[in-house]
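Researcher: Please predict.
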Amino acid sequence: MATLSPNLSITMSQRRWACVLDPSLFLSQYGLLLVQSLGEILELWIARELWHILDNPDFYCKQPKFAMLHTELEQSPERQMVARQNRMQVLKNWETVRAKTPPTHLKLFWMGDRPGESFLPNSTDLQLMERWEALARSLDERSLQQSLPSNLLTPTFRDTAALAAVLGSAFILTYQPSGDDGEQANKPPEICLVLEQWGIPCQEIDPLDAIAAIERENLLQLMISTGLSKFLWAGLHLVVLHLVVPSAFTPYCKASHSWQIHAFSEKSEPALPCFTNVWEGAQGFWYRL
């Protein structure tokens, strides 16, 4: 029987987990810390619309209510004031970091308005941008049909959901803010509430679910390795959200009404799948870390 030489070593290469940071978590006081820590071990993505917010920090610092979550606006006036101050500080921190850090060192991936304004993993197929744009556009139309109240953060949730859907294996990392009493809120994360309003049900997974337990353990081990455990003890209530969108990888129409994404051509529109209700049957599943 043949044996391996004692001098021979085999290294297994495994792609990092893809994770999309929820806008509410990205804009929280923990956002910058999570990017700097998790960007080392995860393929970390953010929504395009977040850059539009970070590109206009002065506007949001003068009008912080436009960057406030609905759950924050439901809190007491005192906690709303704290939330506004925290948001302004976060925007200033990101402004400083971006001024000193080239995009290649931000430990983030994103899809911009054009391929040249994007930062993608080397193996990324540019058709991914086409699919993402179509999913985001379809979800935007779905949200408009609901005629529900929104704020300037609504497009960031739209882009985040479409991004998680098109990446396939990616999960969304979000969190549950504390209530007025400082304790963990029992409500689902804000992004889940928004998706529910758009007709996409989000179900909490039983804490004893075997699959969630395995995934939770793996993620916690990764976070412990980056030194994040102390922040979990300090009250950072992280939540993992998985989106199931059956139509996300449906082949796109090639008929005469099929368009190229406008990012590649000024006169064209995003290509849509061969049916209109792209988010039909979509659902979310979330659990606490």
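Model: Residues 18-288 form one domain.
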